[in-house]
Amino acid sequence: QGPVCTNLGLKPGQRLTVKGKISPNAKSFVMNLGKDATLLGLHFNPRFDAHGDVNTIVCNSKKVEEWGAEHREAVFPFQKGGTVEITFGVNQNDVTVHLPGHQFTFPNRLNLPVFDYFDTQGDFTLQSLSWE
Known about the structure:
With 132 residues, the chain is mainly β. It has strands at 4-5, 15-22, 29-34, 39-50, 53-63, 66-67, 71-73, 83-90, 94-99, 102-107, 117-122, 124-131. Helices cover 0% and strands 59% of the residues. The strands form two sheets. Strands 1, 3, 4, 5, 6, 7 and 11 form a seven-stranded antiparallel sheet that branches. A five-stranded antiparallel sheet has the order 10-9-8-2-12, with no helix packed on it. A hairpin with a 2-residue loop joins strand 5 (53-63) and strand 6 (66-67).
């Protein structure tokens, strides 16, 4: 597990930009945004080859131990051993995920007014985190 950030205070209209390096032999990595570790508004999980998925981004939400319905994105702009910049834009009803050459939205299923929590896990090394 990588660094854990708390008390981010991300509100609608604000953005979190994550830069980092993907491991050369990556299977998958995760970025979580939410209230805390038990209430995740966005579980962002690019999978190179994990859980039966190949080159697929799987997104979900989690309320305590209860996962929501998985959302799959077919566009996969990640490369093993590469660096990547991902921006999460917080809106009133969803989060816009900005990837290299692609973007999509994921609904704020938990109706979180503020996103205070961020962490990374898996085959990813966080290099910088900025928000505005």
